[in-house]
């Protein structure tokens, strides 16, 4: 099991997948991270890191182009101070990426219906996690989704992926610009352990807020 300062992942497994949000949306106030973002932004990679199981997410997806929601369960122990550490059962949900050019019109519509259903009906203890490629400039579609999430969800965390693709000054500038555009604080994630740890620790802090 993976150990990080402030977070230990005690267990992780695939729970279920479904095309309907009501079948996936937890009934109980279990802390639930729902990961949104364009296709290829790094959702599966990041969730693999949140679970401490890089291959679990890919292996859980039905082969082909099925548009579905994937639910994982995990147990996290959080807290810097060993005495005050807490154990949490959590859910992590992978959503279909939007903006994938190879999809048919019917698939695009299905995907966008599903995403609006999810974004409009957050679970009781829901944290929306919006991933964004640090090198890209958001369009109105992206800004609109983030705006909706920040209005509807109790908590929102924007995470900038692929920060390893820019140099230090490029990263700092992009981070400032994107925080302003998304009107939300952002954290960075990238290739390698240290970079993703920072973002996952930000989520562990969010967890303390929802429980
Ligand atoms: N350099 C870099 N590549 C990444 C990062 N995260 C994901 N990738 C790569 O981006 C591609 C898409 O990632 P994936 O997790 O499948 O994206 P998804 O479509 O949002 O689930 C894969 O080739 C990943 O290896 C990152 O932080 N840095
Ligand atoms: Mg994926």
Report what the structure shows:
The protein is an alpha/beta fold and 211 residues long. It has a single domain (3-210), classed as 3-Layer(aba) Sandwich (Rossmann fold), CATH 3.40.50.300. It contains 7 helices and 8 strands; from the N terminus they run E-E-H-E-H-H-E-E-H-E-H-E-H-E-H. The protein has helices at residues 21-24, 43-50, 56-60, 105-120, 140-152, 168-182, 193-210; strands spanning 3-4, 7-18, 32-36, 69-78, 86-94, 126-133, 155-161, 186-188. The protein has an 8-stranded mixed β-sheet, sandwiched between helices. A hairpin with a 7-residue loop joins strand 4 (69-78) and strand 5 (86-94). The radius of gyration is 16 Å and the shape is globular. Guanosine-5'-diphosphate is lined by residues 37, 39-45, 97, 161-162, 164-165, 189-191.
């Amino acid at each position: 099991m993976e150990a990080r300062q402030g977070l230990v992942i005690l267990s992780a497994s695939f729970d279920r997948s479904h095309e309907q949000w009501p079948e996936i949306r937890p009934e109980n106030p279990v802390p639930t991270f729902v990961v949104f973002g364009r296709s290829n932004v790094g959702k599966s990679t990041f969730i693999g890191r949140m679970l401490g199981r890089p291959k679990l997410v890919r292996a859980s997806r039905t082969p082909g182009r099925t548009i579905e929601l994937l639910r994982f369960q995990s147990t996290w122990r959080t807290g810097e101070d060993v005495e005050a550490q807490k154990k949490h059962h959590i859910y992590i949900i992978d959503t279909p990426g939007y903006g994938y050019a190879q999809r048919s019109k019917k698939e695009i519509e299905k995907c966008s219906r599903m995403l609006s259903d999810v974004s409009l009906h957050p679970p009781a203890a829901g944290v929306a996690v919006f991933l964004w490629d640090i090198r890209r400039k958001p369009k109105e579609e992206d800004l609109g989704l983030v705006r909706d999430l920040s209005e509807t969800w109790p908590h929102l965390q924007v995470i900038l992926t692929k920060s390893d693709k820019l140099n230090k000054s490029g990263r700092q500038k992009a981070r400032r610009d994107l925080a302003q555009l998304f009107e939300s604080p952002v954290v960075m994630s990238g290739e390698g352990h240290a970079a993703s740890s920072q973002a996952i620790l930000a989520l562990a802090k969010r967890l303390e807020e929802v429980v």
